From TrEMBL:
It comes from the Eukaryota. This is Protein kinase domain-containing protein. It holds the Pfam family PK_Tyr_Ser-Thr. The chain crosses the membrane at residues 75-99. Residues 157-426 form the Protein kinase domain. GO terms for molecular function: ATP binding; protein serine/threonine kinase activity. Residues 1-25 form the signal peptide. Keywords: ATP-binding, Kinase, Membrane, Nucleotide-binding, Serine/threonine-protein kinase, Signal, Transferase, Transmembrane, Transmembrane helix. It comes from Acer saccharum (Sugar maple).
Length: 440
């Protein structure tokens, strides 16, 4: 509208300018003569005399009579043409302005359709973001989700939506619509929490693997940070093994498949990332299971690149899963993850926690307790989880126990690479569960 008003103002000024020029330029006399020495204005009588002199004196230069009426016509024509062009230009700009106004209204209408009529959630961008991650495999980007959307999707972070609790905060179920669920991790704390939040977000936007959790979006609200993940319907491996069901939902072959999935995730970090990544906090609570019990690695807040200087890496991890060389000497490499994998393998095999209290002042690790019995074939069947004890092939049991023993060796050089572990376990998984598939 401002542009239109300015052009109208210019149009009126132009007309006024033309008219004023016309008035000023018009002389009082109606006839003028033009000589070769310049124009001279004559009165009517002088003009008649001049004509007579021309007749009597042929040598005098020709006198051209110019009527101002013709000049006025030319100016008027020019003014009409200029006004017409300016009018066409104004009409074009007006039509363009109407078009832009309609386009703006349509875009606003479409954006409003993205909101759920019941609770006002902007569902479409979130769902599309998740689908793009899963289908297109886009990297290095993450959706920013507004806080009020998370609040509404988690019922104001109600207790009934709590999925679990970690060292930095709780994880909530977020119900965005009838078909789309997500898990929201609420991170609270000081500088360490901020670093872990940034670290995990930076890693997850670059990882794309079927055995690593997908990040849907993030949110920062004051001092509180939120990470939004794809929903894993069967929760964590820790809850499945040590929760109310005590592993009853996990068959022997399902446990082997979970072990293979975890090994595949670690192989991606160790062998296919450049530079290689060390998870540094692998444990059963950071292994999540979807509706088909496919396992995915999560919680990358402590992950670092392999070869990071020890002085720059703060000693972190979970008691029972931390490798001895890292705990005692601060040495960290991919074999530290292999040790933690061996502990998870023992949990799957025996159904015991990584560390159990023997008395109020004494604890025992699963490695210390199991190691003497893992190499004795007569004792091994008796320490297996009772839920799966009578459902397994003993030959497979001995093979899995041998892999676990190698993974938890105190000396890192004696531990196998995760790729070798994966090759040893895949043949034990039935074809229908993906045992014959070699997925990087």
């Amino acid at each position: 509208m401002k542009l239109l008003g300015m052009l109208m103002y210019m149009w009126v000024c132009s007309i006024c300018l033309f008219l004023s020029t016309l008035v000023i330029a018009r002389p009082d006399k109606t006839v003028s003569t033009i000589f070769r020495f310049g124009p001279v204005f004559l009165t009517g009588k002088e003009a008649i005399l001049s004509s007579q002199m021309e007749a009597e004196s042929p040598g005098i230069p020709e006198v051209r009579i110019v009527h101002h009426q013709d000049l006025n016509k030319k100016i008027l024509i020019a003014l009409v043409v200029a006004s017409s062009l300016l009018g066409v230009l104004l009409l074009f700009l007006f039509c363009f302005w109407i078009y832009r106004l309609k386009s703006w209204k349509n875009s606003n209408g479409k954006s409003k359709q993205n909101f759920d009529a019941g609770n006002g959630l902007a569902l479409t961008p979130i769902v599309e973001r998740f689908n793009s991650l899963m289908v297109a495999g886009k990297k290095d980007s993450v959706a920013v989700i507004e806080y009020h959307l998370l609040e509404a999707a988690t019922n104001n972070f109600g207790e009934s939506n709590v999925l679990g609790e970690g060292g930095r905060g709780r994880v909530y179920k977020a119900h965005f619509n009838e078909k789309f669920l997500a898990a929201v991790k609420r991170i609270e704390g000081g500088q360490d929490a901020q670093k872990e939040f940034e670290n995990e977000m930076n890693w997850l936007v670059t990882f794309r693997h079927q055995n690593i959790i997908s990040l849907v979006g993030c949110c920062i609200h004051g001092e509180t940070k939120f990470l939004v993940y794809e929903m894993m319907q069967n929760g964590s491996l820790e809850n499945q093994l040590h929760g109310p069901t005590h592993g009853s939902d996990l068959t022997w072959h399902q446990r082997l498949k979970i072990a293979v999935d975890v090994a595949r995730g670690l192989e991606y970090l160790h062998e296919h990332c450049n530079p290689p990544i060390v998870h540094r906090d692998l444990k059963s609570s950071n292994i999540l299971l979807d509706s088909s019990f496919n396992a995915k690695l999560s919680d990358f807040g402590l992950a670092v690149t392999a070869g990071t200087q020890n002085k720059n890496v703060k000693l972190s991890g979970t008691l029972g899963h931390v490798a001895p060389e890292y705990l005692l000497e601060g040495k960290l490499n991919d074999k530290s993850d292999v040790y933690a994998f061996g502990v998870v393998l023992l949990e799957l095999l025996m159904g015991r926690r990584p560390v159990e209290k023997m008395s109020p002042s004494q604890c025992q690790s699963i490695v210390t307790w199991a190691m003497p019995q893992l190499t004795d074939r007569s004792k091994l069947p008796h320490i297996v989880d009772p839920v799966i004890r009578d459902t397994m092939d003993l030959k497979q049991l001995y093979q899995v126990a041998a892999v676990a023993v190698l993974c938890v060796q105190p000396e890192p050089s004696y531990r196998p690479l995760i790729t070798d572990v994966l090759h040893s376990l895949i043949p034990l998984v039935p074809i229908e569960l993906g045992g014959s598939l070699r997925i990087a």
